[in-house]
Amino acid sequence: ETLLTVACGRHLTPPWSAAGGRAGSPNYVEVLRDGAPISPRFGKASRLPLRRGDLIRLVTGTGGGYGDPRWWSPPTRQA
Predict the structure, then answer these.
(1) What's the CA gap between 47 and 57, in Å, rounded?
(2) I need a surface site. Which of 9, 58, 72, 77 has the fewest CB within 10 A?
(3) Residue 74 scores a pLDDT above 80
């Protein structure tokens, strides 16, 4: 067994967008035991007990978008 301590910023509020873009995604940590989460996703924990075989998944967020996504989509072309 071991203990996990983690502190991720931006785990509650995703990065904002600008000019009509979409918000980014937050950072989070997930611990899987026997393939299932042992708790909701989190961004901060101190001395969380882990067992042999537990899987720690650290997901890093994305930045917020700028502008309407349709502005940036390439035109459809026939092949």
Answers:
(1) 16
(2) 77
(3) no
pTM to 2 decimal places: 0.74
What the block records as the tokens of 40 is: 């909701």
CA–CA distance, 16 with 6 (Å, rounded to integer): 23
Q: Measured between alpha carbons, how far is 26 from 22 in angstroms, rounded to an integer?
A: 13
Output the 3-class SS for the chain.
Answer: CEEEEEECCCCCCCCCCECCCCCCECCEEEEEECCEECCCCECEEEEEEECCCCEEEEECCECCCECCHHHHCCCCCCC
pLDDT value at residue 76: 73
Beta bridge partners of 57: 30
